[in-house]
From TrEMBL:
Family: Belongs to the multicopper oxidase family.
Protein name as annotated: Multicopper oxidase domain-containing protein
Alphabetical UniProt keywords: Membrane, Metal-binding, Oxidoreductase, Transmembrane, Transmembrane helix
Residue span(s) of domain Plastocyanin-like: 18-128, 172-248, 310-423
């Protein structure tokens, strides 16, 4: 609803049960329902407010992953909402059209709450994206896909999973928008899939069963300059990708995930994620435009200072998260160059709040096309050096920090996180 020029969303965290499997109900958490939450949609330039109610018996927070916003609205561990209490963050959307998401960020308990079902998408629209001939009819040819892995006990409750103890819980069953083995009735020649890896530890490598090429059009922070013809797209926890796939009438094809990193996977390496079933006659879709947007060439020359982040064990730069310590202070309206390295063979990723960064290089080389756009989360391959151009704009706050962390949620909960102020 719109009240006095503010777009207002109601979001209520609730306890419930969900019937995923025939054997029995699973205790779950959800926003405005028993599992996951509504897709929030707002346009660039709009002022938004989320009237958030905590209907849980535990504290929680709601973090807007990928959103550029004041630290006090960011929903990190410094903004707990007590059971029964409410929280009313308000900000102006000011970033390009993108697929963002929201989830709890309670210190030490993020994995538990996200895995129980607290997550949803937040789509940003803008005029530039709206002017392109891309599928954007939500639920028809523009489909949000929250991909998660879970394991079930024989009675239907969530099981601990088949995970490795150092990385968190891996499941042997894939849920897409909370559904096992889903299919999508495709009614148009082209369909846009907004993929979110909403899992706490599993890395995916999405591809179609027949190896068909698709267009990668957007990553975490918005459109790429041009579609990238791809046969697969890897996503680590928290990352998003928008792809456009072309279908022929009457055909069926599965979207699958293979294992990008065999060390990460116990059990089967390949999962079916979603079956696409095309109708006998498909509505026309325009060709994907050859040019999508203009991205500034990332220019590190004026950026200062440089910082480096060594991810090892469950620490960043040999320190565990301390809610009482700001690890550094950045200056508003400046850019910095961050060098990030994963020092050990455990899988890690790197996520920064408030900003969308650009990847300058990977091991000194130009990054692959899929990393050329705006990103807020990046998978870190072992022993590679990622140089990121990170910019902080608009919002200064000397008391509330933003977070950076590994987005494998168990690692984050273990303290593989730090915080910084922007002043
Ligand atoms: Cu998606 Cu700090 O989180
Ligand atoms: Cu985030
Ligand atoms: Cu990690």
């Amino acid at each position: 609803r719109v009240e006095d020029g503010v777009r207002v969303f109601d979001l209520s965290a609730q306890e419930g049960t969900t019937a995923f499997v025939p054997q029995g109900e699973t205790a779950t958490l959800g926003y405005n329902g028993s599992y996951l939450g509504p897709t929030l949609v707002a346009a660039r330039g709009e002022r938004v407010r989320v009237d958030t109610v905590n209907g849980l018996s535990d504290p929680t927070t709601v973090h807007w992953h990928g959103m550029h916003l004041p630290a006090a609205m960011d929903g990190g561990p410094h903004s707990p909402i007590a059971p029964g209490a409410s929280w009313h963050p308000e900000w102006v959307i000011d970033q390009p059209a993108a697929t963002l998401w929201y989830h709890p960020h309670l210190h030490g308990r993020t994995r538990e709450q996200v895995d129980a079902g607290l997550a949803g998408m937040f789509l940003v629209r803008d005029d530039e994206e709206a002017a392109l001939a891309l599928p954007r009819d939500y639920g028809v040819d523009d489909i949000p896909l929250i991909v998660q892995d879970r394991a079930f006990n024989p009675d239907g409750s969530f099981a601990g999973g088949i995970g490795m103890q150092f990385d968190g819980v891996l499941g042997d069953t894939i849920l897409v928008n909370g559904v096992i083995a889903p299919h999508l009735e495709v009614t148009t020649e082209r369909v846009r899939l907004r993929l979110l890896n909403g899992s706490s530890a599993r890395m995916y490598d999405f591809a179609f069963a027949d190896g068909r090429e698709f267009d990668l059009i957007a990553t975490d922070g918005g459109l790429l300059e041009a579609p990238v013809p791809s046969e697969s797209i890897p996503l680590s926890p928290g990352e998003r990708a928008e792809i456009v796939v072309t279908m022929t009438p009457g055909e069926q094809v599965a979207l699958r995930s293979a294992a990008p990193d065999p060390d990460l996977h116990a059990g089967s390496a390949t999962f079916d994620v979603l079956e696409l079933r095309a109708a006998e006659s498909l509505g026309d879709s325009p060709e994907v435009p050859a040019h999508l947007t203009e991205l500034p060439t990332p220019d590190a020359i004026a950026a200062a200072p440089e910082r480096s982040f060594e991810m090892s064990g469950h620490e960043i730069n040999d320190r565990e998260m301390d809610l009482g310590r700001a690890d550094f202070t950045a200056t508003v309206d400046t850019s910095e160059v961050w060098t990030v390295r994963n020092d050990n063979p455990l899988p890690h990723s790197f996520h920064v709040h408030d900003t969308q960064f650009r990847v300058l290089s990977v091991d000194g080389e130009v990054p692959p096309a899929r990393l050329a756009g705006y990103k807020d989360t990046i998978a870190l391959e072992w022993n590679r050096e990622y140089r990121l151009l990170v910019r902080f704009e608009d919002y200064a706050d000397a008391s509330t920090p933003y977070m950076y962390h590994c987005h494998l949620l168990w690692h984050e909960d273990q303290g593989m996180m730090g915080q910084f102020l922007v002043v």
